Amino acid sequence: MRNRSVGWSTGIALALLMVIALAFGSAVHAGEKKQAPQDHNKKASEEKFMDWGFGLFIHWGPVAQIGKEISWPVHDASQEFRDKYFSLYKTFNPVKFNPERWAELAKDAGMEYVVFTTKHHAGFCMYDSKYTDYDIMNTPYGKDITARVGQAFRDENVAVGWYYSPSDWHYLYKTGHKGKYDYGMVVPKHTKPYGTHNLTLLEYERKQIEELLTNYGKTEVMWYDGNATGLKKHTWKLAPDVLIARSVIKTPEQKLPKKPLEGPWETCMTMGRQWDYKPNDNYKSVTQLVHNLVKIRAMGGNYLLNVGPKPDGTLPEPQVRILKGLARWMKTNAEAIHGVRAWKTPQEGDVWFTRKKDRSAVYAVMLRWPEKSRVMFKTLKDVPVKSVRLLGMSDELEWEKGGKGLSVHLPSAKPCDHAWTLKIVPREQE
Ligand code: GLC
Fold first, then answer.
1. Which residue's alpha carbon is at the smallest distance from atom 1 of ligand 1?
2. Range of the domain at 397
3. Per-residue pLDDT tens for 395-409?
4. Which of 84, 109, 325, 361 is the most exposed place for a label (fewest CB within 10 A)?
C-alpha cells in the first residue's frame, strides 16, 4: 500500500513535472521563434574591423589577360565583345600564382585583412562552385585559387574577406538580356533558371554564399558590391560574426570623406587607375598612400588598398615596390595606425591625430617635416602630458606646455620618410 501510495504521488509529481517542462519548452520555443533574424553587424565584429585599419583589396580574374577593367567592358558592349569576354576563362592559366608571397607582402605592409574578388559583376567564380561551370575549375589552371588565397593569408595572421558581386552579368548574358547590363540588380527579381542546378538568381547566390562561408575556413568580412537584398540576413544566419562591409557600412570609393564619418567605414582605392591589372598603369606615390592612410585613420575609417595581379599570377612590379615602401613606413609607425580611433580633432594643418582605443596614447602624425626644430601643437593644449617621443627614436623629446599649446623640440634627423609620428603619453586619461 505504502509503496503504492508513494508510487501514486511520484506518478503525479512526474506528470506535473512533464507538464511544466512541456510548457516551459514550448515557451522557449516560442521565444526562439519570435527572435528576429540578425540584421546588423555585431558590435564586436565592428570593433575588430576598426582595429585592423588597413587592408589589401585584390581584384583578379581572367580579364587580366586583356588588361582592361574588370567586368565593366561588357556593361554596354556588342554581342561580339561579350562573347569574347565571357570566353576569357578558357585561356586563363596563372602558372606563377603564389599567394604566400602576396600575404607576406601585405603582412609586412601592416595590412591586417584581405578582401578578394571571388565573383565580380561579370559572374566568373574564382573558386570551385558546384552551381556553375563558369568558374576557376574550368580554366586550364583548374585549381581553387580562392582556397589558396584564404589559406595563405590566414597563415600570415591576416583576416580573410570575400568580395562578392550580387550583380551577375553572366546570368544576364545566359538568360538572353540585351542592351545595358544592370549594376544594382535586385537579385530576387531574376527568376529565369541559371547554372548547373537551374536555380533562380537569388537561390544561386545564396547557395554560393553558403559555399564561401562553409568551405573556405574562417571568413571575417563579406563585401557585397551592389544591392545585397536577400543575401545579408542569409550571411549573418550562417556566420553571425561576419562583418558585411559594402552594402552595410559606408565605403567611399577612390576618395576620402571631407570629415570623419560615424564608424565603422572604409575607403577603397586603387594604387593605379584600374581595379584589376593594367599594363603600364600610372601609380600613386608611397608618400600619397601613406598620407591617405593617416588621414583616413584620423577620421576613424579603414583603408582598403587594391592590387591587381597579372595574368600569370604575379603582382606587377610597381605594386610590389609600393607594398615594400609602405612596409618600411609601417615598421616605424604602425602603432599610430592599428588599434586606434579618431580623436576629438582629426587635424591641425599638416598634422593628423589618432588615439589608441584604450586612450593610452595620442599620436600626432606630421605629413610635412617642420622647418623649425620647435613645433607648437595647439590641439594638444589640454592633454596632461607625461612624455613625448618620435616613433623610430628611443629618446624622449623635450617639451613644454604653455598657454598656446604643447611645444616640442624635434631632433635634426628624420627617423623615416613620408610622415613622422609623435607619440604623446598622457599622465592620466584625459
Ligand atoms: C565599384 C566597381 C567595381 C569595383 C568596386 C570596388 O563598385 O563597380 O568594379 O570592384 O567599385 O570598390
1. 225
2. 341-429
3. 999 999 989 999 999
4. 84
